[in-house]
Design goal:
The complex is a heterodimer of chains A (254) and B (186). Chain A has helices at 20-38, 46-51, 62-77, 93-110, 194-207, 211-215, and strands spanning 7-12, 115-120, 123-127, 136-141, 149-155, 158-164, 173-174, 179-180, 184-191, 222-227, 232-234. With 254 residues, chain A is an alpha+beta fold. In chain A, helix 1 (20-38) packs antiparallel against helix 4 and helix 4 packs antiparallel against helix 5 (194-207). The model of chain A has no long low-confidence stretch (mean pLDDT 90). Classes of the chains: A alpha+beta (254), B alpha+beta (186). The interface between A and B is large, with 68 and 46 residues.
């Protein structure tokens, strides 16, 4: 457990001579580094010290500046609904988790692990192929039946982020009303940049019943939503797959 | 149309009312035509020549007569390149000069049309703001045009490699579908 959540990494068919176990260990070391720097639960983390005003902008790390710059851009892109100050203090978690998974994925790919799936608490980056050679198959959890999925997605290279109220309760704050957003129960956003997908999912959840219409305007990012009153919606381009394809044995490897 | 205007005005109050930019359509292109279509700049009139008489203040440029109900296209007032705006220093009155000011901006690069706003100033106070939207390849803006399709909420067991869901706590993880998958993978 790192960053308050479970992280799962799977590497398939690494390049010749590449030690998959070393790739995974490097990735976990990266996640620990991110946790040390960005955890809002650790009073000595850089983000906690910044939040208390103990750290001037000049003294921040390159990663912190990169994250805060990206968060500022996303604040604009989401009409203010993605807000790292929504809870009062500085909390860029809605970006950091997806970003750290994306960076881990990029590093593994560059080091010869071109086929992998990295999952940090439901934020997923997949590259290449799954065991057997086919696309990675990702389930989107059913909000009220934890052992079931509402959709299955199939993809080779994709970021998938889900933000929801069903595990931790309504914890995403509508920054304009200052109260938890409750109209949407689960928002999944997919796209090339997992960090952006994560922020979009958080923003749409904060928008409440206006979230689905906003999600429909995004370029390059697909979405799936479950409302608190039990309706399901998705965008036309979401890569939805058959939940249980007929067993055909291992697909031919490429 | 009404709905689109409400959304954008909501954005204006939600962010900031930036005062000072000139409200000509040429000025708005630089300030407001961004990709997200959220930047709407509302500015006062040009006051590069502060009125010296104590009589009826005369706005710089030549304001049009008040536009009827915000219909019609943008109505640039004054000469777009006449001068740059600056805070009103004159003590003879406070607030912007009377007149009707219009601006327009492309929404998401024009995909969702052009948003036009008209602000009427009377007695140095804003007395009316109207907004309308038109044109573009799609006649819509964050309303019905692009839409998520509604479907039945499925609850299915599936053959999957991983699970995307709301952040689980350590306790929730132990009973989660992802934990089952992780165990299956060894």
């Amino acid at each position: 457990m790192i960053m308050g959540t479970a992280i799962t990494i799977e590497v398939v068919d690494p390049d010749p001579g590449v030690d998959a176990r070393a790739l995974v260990e490097h990735a976990f070391a990266w996640f620990r580094e991110v946790d040390e720097r960005f955890s809002t639960y650790k009073p000595d983390s850089e983000v906690s010290r910044m939040g208390r005003g103990e750290l001037a902008a000049a003294g921040t790390s390159p990663d912190m500046r990169l994250v805060l710059d990206a968060c500022a851009e996303l604040h604009t892109a989401t009409n203010g609904y993605f807000d790292v100050y929504a809870t009062g203090g500085l909390d860029p978690s809605g970006y950091v988790k997806g970003w750290s998974v994306r960076v881990a994925s990029e590093r593994m790919y560059a080091a010869g692990g071109r086929n992998h799936c990295v999952n940090a608490g439901g934020d997923i980056m997949v590259r290449g192929h799954a065991p057997g050679g086919g696309p990675w198959r990702i389930g989107i959890v059913h909000p009220w039946q934890a052992d079931k999925v509402a959709w299955v997605l199939a993809a080779h290279d994709l970021g998938i982020a889900t933000s929801g109220t069903y595990e931790r309760g309504p914890h995403v704050i509508d920054p304009f009303r200052g109260v938890p957003a409750e109209a949407l129960c689960s928002v999944t956003v997919t796209g090339p940049d997992l960090a952006v997908a994560d922020a979009y999912a958080t923003a749409a959840l904060a928008m409440g019943d206006r979230g689905p219409a906003w999600l429909a305007t995004l370029d390059g990012y697909e979405s799936a939503v479950v409302t608190t009153d039990g309706r399901a919606m998705r965008s036309a381009g979401l890569p939805v797959a058959d939940p249980d394809p007929p067993a055909t044995g291992p697909a031919p490897s490429d | 149309m009404r709905r689109a205007a409400a959304v954008v005005l909501g954005t204006v109050t939600g962010t900031a009312l930036m005062v000072g930019a000139k409200l000509g359509s040429s000025g708005m292109d630089a300030a407001g035509a961004d990709d997200t279509g959220t930047a709407v700049v509302v500015g006062g009139p040009d006051v590069s020549t502060p009125p010296t008489s104590t009589g009826k203040p005369k706005p710089a440029g030549t304001p049009t007569t008040p536009a009827p109900g915000g219909s019609g296209g943008p109505t640039p007032t004054g000469k777009p390149t006449a001068s740059k705006p600056h805070p009103t220093p004159t003590p003879t009155h406070s607030g912007p000069a009377d007149g009707t000011y219009s601006a327009s901006a492309a929404v998401r690069g024009g995909r969702f049309g052009t948003l036009s706003m008209t602000v009427t100033v009377s007695g140095h106070r804003i007395t009316a703001i109207s907004a309308s939207e038109n044109g573009g390849e799609q006649q819509c803006y964050r309303s019905a045009c692009p839409k998520l399709t509604t479907e039945a909420l499925a609850a299915q067991s599936a053959n999957i490699n991983s699970v995307s869901g709301a952040t689980y706590t350590s306790a929730a993880y132990r009973s989660s579908l992802q934990a089952i998958l992780d165990r299956a993978n060894g």
